[in-house]
Specification:
Elements (H helix, E strand, L loop, with lengths): L2 E4 L2 E4 L42 E5 L5 H15 L5 E7 L8 H10 L6 E3 L3 E2 L3 H10 L5 E5 L5 E6 L4 E5 L5 H5 L6 E4 H10 L4
Antiparallel strand pairs: 1-2, 3-9, 3-10, 4-5, 4-6, 4-7, 7-8, 8-9
């Protein structure tokens, strides 16, 4: 089974999730939000650019756990208007570490409340189910949200320690207010930095 390094131990993640988590180390080349360009070309679907030009990694490594969870949830709420479907896994073996409301959210996302479960695609969802996803995502090994055209909007990995998001120019200011002082790094720059540090 594919594994991801999570802080100080290894945890299994969904075999059918092919999206690699961002490395959990802070880069000296990190870009704070006030250095992010104020505008980006509007030349793609729904205003999103091609490739990775509008995708950002939120480096939560300096945040406490409460802020980390809050950043993940606020980011998902920011992209909510464009979300058509989402999916996540639910590792019930970790439930002892979850607040009550997180356990309740998980029970709304999967029908079996034991072992390692996956939600599959959730579409045509109610506000209640969306709120359950937002509440639970920072506790999933892997969670992601997509447009109807299957454009990845955001993904949360490794129990909220890895967060990437696609942000439109008009969302940048609101996005900046939701990240609790975390560094925001363009995905392309993060990947280049990771290669320079010898990440796999």
């Amino acid at each position: 089974m594919h594994q991801l390094r999570h802080r100080h131990h290894l945890i299994p993640t969904r075999k059918d999730y092919l999206y690699k988590s961002m490395p959990q180390r802070r880069l000296d080349s990190g870009l704070h939000l006030n250095e992010v360009p104020a505008a980006m070309p509007d030349d793609g679907f729904m205003g999103f650019k091609g490739r990775n030009g509008d995708q950002y990694v939120v480096d939560t490594s300096r945040l406490d756990r409460a802020s980390e969870v809050a950043v993940c949830r606020a980011t998902l709420e920011l992209i909510a208007p464009d979300v058509d479907r989402f999916q996540c896994d639910v590792p019930w073996s970790r439930e002892a570490d979850w607040p009550t409301e997180v356990s309740q959210a998980a029970s709304l996302l999967v029908p079996v409340h034991s072992g390692y479960q996956t939600s599959g695609w959730i579409q045509g969802f109610s506000d209640v189910i969306w709120r359950a996803f937002v509440a639970f995502a920072p506790y999933a090994y892997s969670a992601d949200a997509w447009t109807a055209e299957m454009k990845l909007l955001g993904e949360v990995n490794d129990e909220g320690t890895s967060l990437t998001v696609r942000v439109l120019p008009e969302q940048l200011q609101q996005f900046g207010q939701s990240v609790h002082g975390a560094d925001v790094v363009p995905l392309s720059k993060w990947r280049k930095g990771s290669r320079a540090l010898g990440s796999p």
